[in-house]
Amino acid sequence: MSDFPHLEKSKPKAADHQYDDDEVTTLVNGTSDPSHLVYIPGTSNLSPDNRTLVEGQEGSSKSNGLTVRQKKHINTSVQQLHYNENKISLDRCINSTIELLYALSEENKARPVFYPTEIDDDNSLLLNSARAHLALVRQNTSKFDKAKIKPDEDEEPLPEFKVLRLNLKSGHSDFDVVSNLDKGSIAALLEKKIQQQVKYLLNLKDRVDDTSSKVFVTGDLNSGKSTFCNALLRRKILPEDQQPCTSVFCEVIDASKENNSLEEVHAIPIGGPDYNIRDESTYKIYPLKDLEDLVYECDRYSLLKVYVLDHRSFQESLLHNGIIDIKLIDAPGLNMDSYQTTQVFSRQEEIDLIVFVVSAENHFTLSAKEFIAAAASEKRYVFIVVNRFDNIRDKEKCKNRILDQIKNLSPDTYKNAREFVHFVSASDIPIGQPSDDGPGGGDDDDGPAEHDLGHPDFDILEASLRKFILEKRSISKLLPAKSFLVNILRDLQTLSNLNEKIYQQEKLEKLKELNNRVNPRYNEIVSKSVKIQNSINTLIENTCTDIYNATTQQITEVVENLGEKPVVVYGGLQYLFEYAKETHSALFDVVLESVTKCENNTKDITVTKVDEIIKFGQNTLGEEFLNDKTFQSSLMFTRKKDTLLKRLDYQLDIMDFVDPSLESCLTFLGIPEKVVAGIQHQITYFNPLTILTAVPTNAIALRDQIPSQITLHTLYSSGKLLTTGALIHKVYQFSRYVTPGMLKKVALPVVLGLSGISIYYLITDVPHAVVRKQARRIKSQVKKANYAHLNAMRIANECRTVLNYPCRQVMNNFQTNIDKRIGEKQKLETSIKDAELSYGYFHDLLKKVEYQQGLLKEIDLESVHEVD
C-alpha cells in the first residue's frame, strides 16, 4: 500500500488519456470541485481525477472556446517560452559571475583577500568580530596564539560559506588546517577555489545550454544503485550482486536517438581523447553482455556509455519519454575507495538531478552526508531513495530517523519529502533480462509482469521523478544553476561585506597610527638631525677658521722676524760660502719649525673638538655611540708638509755678503743695541709720511690725542732733539776754523782712515749681511708664494677632514634612524593605499553582486505560467 494518504486508488484508465486532462477545471451546477492526484497501478503515473459531468460527456470540457488539449498545447508553448527566457537570463548571470570571479582572482593576487577561519582553541570560536579580523590583518596571520575571540554583542555572526568554503582536514581528525595557515597560504587556497568555481560555472553554463538532462544515481557502497537503475529501466541492464560490483561510471542512454537503435557499450579509455560517437578511435565497442565484466575495469576505462532500447510507451518510459533526452548515470559507491569517492564528488558539475540511494538498514554514512551537503550548494532538491525498506520491521521509526537526517542535510528536500523522499525496495520490481537476439531485448516472457500491480511506492517514485524532470523542467534543469548562483553570489556578498569593513577599519587604524605615532617620531628625529648637523657644522667651521687665523698669524710673525740675528755660528772668511748655505737652510728650518708648531697646536685642538662632537652623538644617540673607537691625533699631517724648498730660488752671489745699514754701522761704532733701536725708532717716528698720517683732522681728534701725545717719552725725545741741534751748531762754528790748506793736509789720512774703517766694517759685518740678505730674499719669496695662506689652508683642511669623520658618524646614525622611520612611514602609506584600493574594489564588487542578485531574483522558475 502507498505511504502517502493523499493519494487515492482508482480504476485504470487508458494510457493515452493520462496527461490529456491535466488542467481540467470541473464545474458542476456552478460549484468547483477540487481535483485529486490518482495513483493508477501498473502505469507508473500520477493522474488527476478527471471525472467530470459536462453535457453528459466525459473528457470533452471547453474553457473560453478552447478544448483542454488546445489549452494544454498553448500552456506548453508558453512554458517553453519562459523556459528559454530564463535560460538566457541564467547564461548572462553565469557569464557575469565568472567575470566577478576573475576580477576577485586578480585582486587576490595583487592584495590577498581576507578569508575568515576558525581558530584552534578550547572553544573553536568563529572569528566573526571585526576587531579580531583587523588584528589578524595586522599580524598577517589567521589565528591568535591561545587567544579566545568572542563576537561583539552588536555584531551579527557571519553566514557560513557554501561555495567558497575552504576545508582542509588533517588526516582522519577534525583538526582544521586552514585556521592554522597564514594569510598568504589562505589566499593561495582561495585562488585555487576561485579557479575551481570558474571551471564549475563554465560546466554549469554548458549544462544549462544542453537540451538533455542527466540523472545521477549514487549512494553508499552496496546500497542497491544498480538494482534501482534496472528497476527504472524495467530491464536487467546493469550487473547486480550482493558484493560491490560497479567501479566504473555507467551512463545509460537511449539508443534510438544517439546510436542508430543499436544496443551496445562504448568504453572510454582512461587518458584517451574526448569521446566522440562519430570517431570510433575514441572508444571501444562491447556487447551488452560484457557489461558485467566491464564494470570492474576501473583501471582501464573512465566511463561506460551504455546504449539501450526501451520499447515501453512514452508515458511509461523515463529514458524514452518522447520529450527530452535523459541520460541515467550509475556511479560507484562512495565508500569503495578514496579515488572513486573523489570522482563521484567531481561529477556533480555535469549533472542536473541527483538520485541518492541509501540503504534503509544503514542510513546515511559520513561520506553520504558530505556528498549531500556538497550537492546542497547547487541543488535545492535531491531525490532520496531509501532502498530495501521492506526489510525494516519498525518502518515509522526508520522513516523518522532518516527524515531527521535529511532535515539537516537538505532542508528543501525535507520540506517536500512527499515528492523527493521515497521508501522502496527496488529488488522487488519485476524486470526483464538483456538479450542479443534483437532490438526487442528478449522474449515477451522476460518483460515486466503486466498483471503485477503491487508496487505503488515505486510507481509513485517513478512518477514523481518523471514529473520533476519533464513537467518541472525549469526546476530540475535550471533551478540547480540558479541555486548555485544564489549561493556563490551570497558568498561573494559575504566576502565583500567582510573585506569592505575590514579594509575601511584598517585604513582608519593605519591613518591613526601614521598621524599619531610615525609622523611625529619622523618629524622629531628630522628636526633633531638638522639641529645637531647645524651645531656640528658651526663647530667645525669655527674651529677651522680659528686654526687658519692662528696659523697664518704665527707663520707671518716668524717670517717677519727672520734675519734679526745670526742663526748659525760663523767660522771665518774661509768658511764664508758654507756659512751662507747653512744660514739659508737654517732660516728655512725656522719657517718649517713654525709650521710644525702650528700643526701640533692643531692636533691638540682637534682632539678636543672630536670629543665634543662625540658628546653630541652620545647625548642624542646613546652612550654607546663610538665608545669603542679612539681618535689618534698622531696620524694627522703624516703626508708631505710642503714643497717650499723646491719652490724658492736659491742663488748665492757676491752681493749677498755686503749689506751696509745704519743700524749695523752704529753697532759697529760701539753704540749699544738699545740705543741703536731707539735711534731707529725715532727716525721711523719722525718720518714725514708718518707725521702726515698722524696729524689730527679736526679739533676733536686733536683733543683726544693730546693726552696721549704729551708724555715723558715725548719730552725726552724733544730734549734729545734740542741737544742734537746744539751739537750741530757747535760743528758749524768749528767749521770756521777749517781752511782749504788744512783740508789738504788731513784729507788723505782721513780718507785712508775712513776707507780702512769702512773695509773693516764691511768685513766684520759679513755674517750679519748674509743673514739680512737671505732673510729679505726668503721674506720676498715667501710672500710671493703666499706660503702662510697655503699652509694655513692645508692645516685647517686637515682638521676639517678629521672632524668630518665623527660628524659623518653622527649624521649616518641619524640617517639610519630617519631611513627606518621613512621605511615605516612608507610601509604604512602603502598599507593605507592598498586598504583604499581594496576597500574601493570590494565596495564596487558588493554593488555588482547586489545587482546580479537582483537580476537573479527576477528569474522566476517555480511559478507556473498558463493561459486561462
UniProtKB/TrEMBL annotation:
Topology class, membrane: Multi-pass membrane protein
Cite the entry's keywords alphabetically: Coiled coil, GTP-binding, Hydrolase, Membrane, Mitochondrion, Mitochondrion outer membrane, Nucleotide-binding, Transmembrane, Transmembrane helix
Q: Name one GO biological process term.
A: intracellular distribution of mitochondria
Q: Where in the cell is it found?
A: Mitochondrion outer membrane
Compositional bias (Polar residues): 58-67
Low complexity compositional bias: what residue ranges?
428-437
- Compositional bias of type Basic and acidic residues: which residue ranges? 1-18
Query: What's the catalysed reaction?
Result: GTP + H2O = GDP + phosphate + H(+)
Q: Which GO terms describe its molecular function?
A: GTP binding; GTPase activity; peroxisome-mitochondrion membrane tether activity
Keyword Disulfide bond on entry: no
Renumbered to this chain, region (Disordered) spans: 1-20, 41-69, 428-453
Q: Which InterPro entries match?
A: Dynamin_N (IPR045063), G_DYNAMIN_dom (IPR030381), Mitofusin_fam (IPR027094), P-loop_NTPase (IPR027417)
Q: What is its main location?
A: mitochondrion
**Which Pfam families does UniProt cross-reference here?**
Dynamin_N
Per the record, GO CC terms? mitochondrial outer membrane; peroxisomal-mitochondrial contact site; peroxisome
Q: Where is the Dynamin-type G domain?
A: 209-509
Signal sequence bounds: none
Q: What is this protein called?
A: Dynamin-type G domain-containing protein
